[in-house]
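Usage

Read records sequentially. Each one opens with the input sequence:
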Amino acid sequence: MRTSSNPAFRNLPTSPGGYARFGDAPAGLGGGFGAGPGQGPVAGASDRPLTVDDVVQKTALNAVVTIGAGVLTAISGMYWLGIPGFIVGLVVSLIIIFKQSSNPALVLTYSVAQGMALGAITGLLESSSSSYAGIGFQAIVGVVGVFIGMLVVYKTGAIRVTPRLTKMVIGAAIGVVILMLVNLVVGFFTTGGIGLRDGSPLAIIFSLACIAIGAFMLLLDFDQADQAVKAGVPAKFAWYLAFGFMTTLVWLYIEILRLLSYFRGD
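and closes with the structure output:
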């Protein structure tokens, strides 16, 4: 079975054949068809199977909420909201991941919190210099471009999601996270850390690598959502899948924003 590099999708309940099954529906779905003793109540007839439209609609809604919260935070100048936004987003994301919750309120709260955090970062950047004017919009366009591009790649089968590719993407993602942490720790003692975030040629290459990894994470996420639809998991699971997509899109936005700042800096 393939698992996504996305921590949310990695917990997708699956059957031996690799697809999700009703009996192992995640917490928050209220059990499922074929659930045995102790697995929760059997789903009612109203708990229809998941469709592609469900995933698209929930993901689009959360994306709009995130952008809206970000824009409001940026234009209001209330950049201090970025700190509570980051903390709330982190806590809520951990709750959703570990409980595998498809609670709409939790997912939307995550989107609002992330929007506040990203809006604060973007607002601070744009207000710091005229060179960064409009950089937030460019980053959004970049994210949309990567999303559409990887969707086309996935649907056309230009790059097939295989167990080997999944392991490579997961390994690469873990590697860059470790490097980020090392750079952060070293940065406490020396200026610029190990040079991964200082705008140097090395920093540019690192950001490009992070964006590439984020793009492939998105490819794996498409595959996990496709498996869920084929397996016919309950429709409300679309909220959980939307959350998974949002974690990847947030990653891409931050990295694209950072890369743009290197080229547009004074």
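Summary fields computed downstream for this record:
- Residues 49-264 form one domain.
- The helical segments are 52-76, 82-99, 104-128, 135-156, 163-187, 201-231, 238-264.
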